[in-house]
Design a protein that fits this description.
Number of strands: 9
Strand order of the largest sheet: 1-2-3-4
Number of helices: 3
Largest sheet: 4 strands, antiparallel
Length: 181
């Protein structure tokens, strides 16, 4: 068996199905454990001297191997939450944002959504670590959509310059969008 240095090929994806249970895989000196509830633990395999390397849990802002950014634990699901590394390229209305997220196929995932009000606030609280947010406070670029609705015409939005959350943002006006999964 030959060892390739600096391999530049595509990542190998292995699907085990939905009901496989907890899985641990060792690849290229890294052990990745995925539990049925969606928790991920990454640790280095033993060093050359046989001593176990330190375990490394993802930290908020860490870029994951698939290109997503670890954004913390979702306050809605209590599971790891990942964000796209950048905002959608254009501001959009509430309904356009929902449609955009539902159709987004990025970083090998198709389960993106507009963050809930609580998830959006978690993104705001971790904005420096996650990076790439418009923090100018200017409308519409500095405002972000949540999926939480106030009524038929209004939804919750959040300004990323100071964290102000408003429940009366018109669904017909534009705001920025950062998708999560």
């Amino acid at each position: 068996m030959t060892q390739q240095s600096g391999y530049q090929g595509k990542a190998k994806e292995i699907s085990l199905g939905e009901d496989f249970g907890d899985v641990a895989v060792k690849v290229n000196g890294v052990r990745v454990e995925v539990t049925m509830d969606g928790n991920v633990k990454i640790s280095l395999v033993a060093n050359d001297d046989g001593k176990a390397a330190a375990s490394t849990e993802p930290k908020i802002g860490d870029k994951m191997p698939d290109g997503t950014v670890f954004a913390g634990i979702s306050p809605e699901t209590n599971k790891p939450m990942y964000a796209t590394p950048a905002d959608a390229s254009l501001t959009m209305t509430f309904n356009d944002a929902k449609g955009y997220a539902a159709l987004l196929d990025a970083h090998g995932h198709r389960d993106w959504h507009v963050p809930t009000k609580a998830e959006l606030n978690a993104l705001f609280n971790n904005r420096a670590e996650i990076g790439g947010f418009n923090v100018s406070g200017a409308y519409p670029d500095g405002w972000y959509w949540s999926s939480s609705q106030s009524d038929r015409w209004l939804a919750w939005g959040q300004r990323f310059s100071d964290g102000a959350q408003l429940r009366d943002v018109s669904k017909f006006g534009p705001s920025s969008l950062r998708c999560v999964r």
